[in-house]
Write a structure and sequence with these properties.
32% of the residues lie in helices and 21% in strands. With 576 residues, the protein is α/β, with parallel strands linked by helices. It has three domains: 119 residues, Urease, subunit C, domain 1 (Roll); 125 residues, Diaminopimelate Epimerase, Chain A, domain 1, CATH 3.10.310; 295 residues, Alpha-Beta Barrel (TIM Barrel). A hairpin with a 4-residue loop joins strand 11 and strand 12. It is globular, with a radius of gyration of 25 Å. The N and C termini lie far apart (51 Å).
Length: 576
């Protein structure tokens, strides 16, 4: 018996030596940590080895020893959490980055604070021919949500000012900008848009909704490619600080004279070797322009913009607007406008949406729907259903993004159509304006079906998380906390929004990593910690599973790696 055991041990040692001799020493080894893999089995490990740009080992601390050579950099994590990099499935990197380099007036809900910030923009740019910016809250001007031009006129009577709302569905302008654009009482509202007016004179009152926004924005000074690249650089730096290594840009315009400027920013940035994140670009469909020329532009851009890290493979369709301005498309009238029968009209009619989606799906484009109201979601699912019936089933991974309020009968349809539920989970709480805006607009019945993340998860729908930055913070940890608690991270309310729609932490992390990677067709390359996948990794100062859910948003990303390259933080800070 002892002789047999000796022979077996000798054989094991022999084959182990052979196996070890075939192991390539890693460039970097992380050890002694809480490694969360985001995999179905064996979710935890303590060590990871990286060779070149890929993961070469995942396991325990003993198993990683053969990967350590004389030139291997060994990082002791001391229990810190190592996990896959986040991916943002709905964000606006170039446009948002540019905005922060303009007149940024975010996070200023009080009117006087907002006006002071705008005044500072004007004071700091005395030679500006036009002040452009964004960030004001529609709720600052509740209940109408329509800011008057006179407030801006007092700040700048001569220099035009145009400011996007934080939700990017309204523009606020002063009289100088309105006059420069030639907009008068006689100017007709475009289809799918509204010029807000003085109820007596019919003159523009200062705000423009949805498709009426270009009536004035088209007169803003043209943005240079240099400015767009600077905006992208700003965004990428911010994303890396939050541990984001992949994005889905959900609004890339291709129909104006500056046709592919944002796409050019991506390709120029990539060609210069400066792009350090995965990018899927969703080109914007414009319902006010002829369809066929747009289709040809989409096909041309998909072919010409393809890079290792950039894929222009998706089309963005704005099906409706937002509930704050009554432009989200509802199946029944808004609760506070029921007497008037106001339901909000879709920006693309149901029949046109069905035809459009069927055509784009047949051309192998991925569809990225903007859908807020229950009617918009219902019509989007109608379109996907028709596309599948006409074109056959394929691995399309179409996204429905935002999906604020639902007809519960559509939950199962979503699952049957294999669409990706692209939630901005940070919104799934009772914020400061929930009672006066969200609940008031939706009413008691519909308010039971707001951001039904768990209902869809239980039906097997793939969840992906996006921030919609600049609309709200790009920090995924905030969204993860809200998805788990259904409470605003600022602690303003203590009553959660539909607590039965909360999800567990593992599911929330998966939505922000592997789920979003799946939605970007990148799940075979990244999104989880597995041998052979890209080393898109982050280190967090706390194990998220060992702290109260209310503290998740307080955790900090200490290190971000993209393809094995450190793009944020440093090794020294990681171990201290």
């Amino acid at each position: 018996m002892h002789k047999r055991k000796f022979i077996l041990m000798s054989l094991l040692s022999f084959f182990t030596d052979i196996a070890y001799s075939q192991i390539t020493h890693a460039d970097i080894v992380f050890t002694g940590g809480s490694v969360y893999r985001v995999t179905e089995n064996e979710q935890w490990a303590s060590s990871v080895a990286i060779s070149k740009n890929k993961i070469s080992y995942v396991g325990d601390d003993m198993g990683v020893i053969p990967f350590i050579g004389p030139d291997t950099r060994v990082v002791e994590l001391n229990g810190k959490m190592l996990m896959p990099g986040f991916q943002d499935a709905h964000v606006h990197p170039v446009d948002s980055g540019m905005t922060y380099n303009q007149c940024a007036v975010f996070n200023l809900p009080q009117l006087q604070d907002l006006l002071d910030a705008i005044q500072e923009c004007v004071n700091n740019n005395p030679n500006a021919e036009w002040i452009v910016g964004a960030g004001w809250y529609v709720s600052t001007f509740s209940p109408s949500g329509k800011p008057p031009k006179e407030l801006l006129d007092e700040i700048s009577p001569d220099i035009p000012i145009t400011l996007l709302s934080n939700a990017a569905h309204s523009v606020w302008a002063n009289s100088a900008a309105i006059e420069h654009a030639g907009i008068t009482a006689e100017t007709l509202d475009p289809e799918g848009g509204q010029i807000d007016r003085n109820p007596i004179t019919g003159e523009p009152s200062g705000s423009f909704q949805e498709s009426a926004m270009p009536l004035i924005q088209n007169f803003e000074p043209p943005i240079t490619l240099k400015e767009r690249i600077a905006g992208l650089a700003f965004a990428q730096k911010l994303f890396h600080s939050y541990g984001i290594t992949g994005v889905h840009d959900s609004y890339v315009e291709v129909s104006r004279e500056t046709a592919y400027s944002n796409m050019e920013a991506y390709t120029a940035f990539a060609d210069a070797g400066n792009l350090k994140m995965h990018v899927v670009a969703a080109m914007l469909y414009d319902p006010t322009l002829p369809l066929r020329p747009q289709i040809e532009l989409f096909k041309k851009q998909r072919k010409e913009s393809n890079r290792e890290l950039v894929n222009a493979t998706a089309i963005k369709i704005l099906v409706d607007g937002v509930a704050t301005s009554y432009s989200a498309a509802m199946l029944e009238p808004y609760a506070d406008r029921e007497a008037e029968g106001i339901k909000g009209e879709p920006l693309v009619s149901r029949s046109n949406l069905i035809d459009l989606v069927t055509l784009l799906d047949d051309l192998d484009f991925q569809i990225h729907f903007h859908s807020i109201g229950d009617a918009a979601t219902h019509y989007s699912l109608d379109a996907l259903e028709n596309a599948r019936n006409m074109n056959g089933q394929r691995d399309s991974r179409h996204h429905l993004s935002h999906i604020m309020v639902w007809d519960p009968n559509d939950y199962d349809r979503m699952a049957e159509l294999n669409a990706v539920a692209n939630f901005q989970a940070l919104w799934a709480s009772k914020d400061k304006h929930y009672d006066e805006i969200t609940y008031a607009r939706m009413g008691e019945k519909r308010s039971k079906y707001i951001y039904p993340i768990n209902s869809l998860h239980q039906r097997g729908v793939t969840l992906a998380f996006g921030s919609d930055w600049y609309v709200t913070s790009a920090n995924p940890l905030l969204a993860i906390e809200v998805a788990v608690t259904r409470l605003d991270p600022d602690g303003y309310r203590t009553d959660p929004l539909l607590p039965n729609e909360s999800i567990d932490l593992a599911t929330a992390i998966k939505a922000a990593t592997l789920g979003s990677a799946f939605g970007n067709f990148l799940d075979q390359k990244t999104g989880s910690i597995e041998v052979g996948k890209l080393a898109d990794l982050i280190v967090i100062d706390k194990n998220l599973f060992e702290i109260p859910p209310s503290e998740i948003s307080e955790a900090k990303v200490m290190l971000t790696m993209f393809g094995g390259e450190i793009v944020y933080g440093d090794m020294h800070s990681t171990v201290n």
